[in-house]
Amino acid sequence: MGSLPHFLSDSSSQKETHLVDPIKLRNLFNSQQKYLNNFFDKLDHSQAHLFTQTLLNSTGTIFITGVGKSGFVSKNISQTLVSLGIKSQFLSPVDALHGDIGILTENDVLVMFSKSGNTEELLRLVPCARAKGAYLISVTSVDGNSLMGLSDLNVHLPLERELCPFDLAPTTSTAIQMVFGCTVAIAMMDAKNLTKEGYAANHPAGRIGKSLIFKVKDVMKKQEELPVCKEGDLIMDQLVELTSKGCGCLLVIGDDYHLIGTFTDGDLRRTLKASKEGIFKLTVGQMCNRNPRTIGPERMAVEAMKKMEAPPSPVQFLPVINEENIVIGIVTLHGLVSAGL
Fold it and tell me: Is 118 in a helix, a strand, or coil?
């Protein structure tokens, strides 16, 4: 039989222990803050404004490109723009040179992120993109670079140095690119007067979108799912209805589905403790809560959750009633959580 690989063998005593110096860590955070402050202090706001306005005026797609870490930043900024309802797409410079540049048109803007401004893949992309008629913008940090001289517009992102002790690993430069791109995106969002509802419409599957889009009527149980009973019904005759609908309660209604009150499994326990065998003679109407919290079907689902959690004590459900106090549904805390709220 063969022996275990060295990384599975018990060699803990031979491992070198590495510890993070808390003082050095704090100093690194302080240094990064200093470098970022340098960026904020020296950024040319007239350039930033022209850049933002140019993107806002674009009638085509805002393509964003970069290589390496700048490529990851470019993807993130592009996705942020899309989430705000702005037409944008990441364009890989390598793939562009192998056919993807066919997507560019004369109405489009191509934004190229590069710390050095001398990235070979981007320099090769420039003449091809220009031939397609796209408007070219470079976003760089090194003065006198090649890319800025080939672009229709250049934005300089001031960079004191990288946080890396060798001033090599892109750490501060990528943070600056991200801050710049996302700030511009929010400025465009503001200029387009994007509402909270409009933002939510772009995130329908996320918690933000659901909290701004879903109404009570979208998440409530209704019709045969409702645990209903009449106020004259005996409590013991309604145990199946109380437990089988998964709501933890009974909705006590009149002949026209007019809401009279609610009776919960907690009410059942308290009634049993107080009346013992007398519970067999008690009706639901005698023991129900005749002043329950309710909500309308057009209210926001997130409002229902807040109402359930409100003082003096939280509840697990809300009867849904219309303007005539007629029961049309029930919304439960479990249902809201299951819906992603």
Answer: coil
First to last CA, the chain: 55
Three-state SS for 154?
Answer: strand
Model confidence pLDDT, tens digit, residues 164-204: 999 999 999 999 999 999 999 999 999 999 877 677 666 55
CATH of domain 216-339: 3.10.580.10
Q: What is the amino acid identity at position 263?
A: F
User: What is the spatial distance between Cα 131 and Cα 125, in angstroms, rounded to a whole number?
Assistant: 10
CATH of domain 22-194: 3.40.50.10490
Four-point Cα dihedral 261, 243, 299, 289, nearest 10: 20
Q: Return all residues near 320 (Cβ < 8 A) that are at least 6 apart.
A: 216, 217, 220, 222, 294, 295, 296, 297, 327, 328, 329, 330, 331
Q: How far apart are CA 245 and CA 223, in angstroms?
A: 12
